[in-house]
Design goal:
mainly beta; 2 domains; 20 strands; TMEM132; Ig_TMEM132_5th; Ig_TMEM132_6th
Amino acid sequence: AVESEDPAEEPERRARGCRPQFQRTGLRVLAHFVAHPLDGGRHLSYLPGPEWLLDVTHLVAARTRVQDPRVASLEEGAVVVGREPGVTSVEVRSPLSDSILGEQTLVVSEEKVTVTELRAQVVAGLSLSLRTQLDHPAVVTATARGTPTLRVLKQEATLSVWLSFSDHTLAPLELYGWHDVALTVTSLDRAVATVGGSPGVPASHPWVVAEGPGRGALLQLSLHPPDPCRRGRHRAAALATGTAWL
């Protein structure tokens, strides 16, 4: 935590996350899609096959909870936030009987980790590819990928930013909220690209504008605590840095 220079600012700074935070993780709930036989038998038909799982996170969000909210909490049914060291579980309960339909053990460790690097990709557009499954000809898999190339002047692109931790895990910056961190993006060649925004998009969300031809690791990223937490000797210290290629 950063030492306060003004006691009156302490409540605001604490509310803005000026203390070390526990890691967060996204939550996905997967389930088999099955059909029961008409004759009442026990043989189930898995659709399209037993190796396939359906993402039902949004369908069961209202029935998903952390067994011990002192250890962790669940935000919007999809983000698990550590609160204190301990062991608990994430449960999905039946809306009819309140019985547990599925659960997963969750451990919040005392081990401290740090953000070691920012990994970022310029997303100027999307490419879509389709392919069929050899063992399931009726199934078509669609894959979308971000493309980093800005092809015309004044074309805009956003940045996909991930946090790399010292425990060798990755997490998208969005999991931690744009209000709990300050991300600075600087262009190393303003003749090629500038960093700005777009109407209705907060300044904390990076936005890149093409200004001329060029390529390379031209964007410098720095992650800082929110402004109320930056005081005195800690003001200029970055939590992590990284570059982005375009």
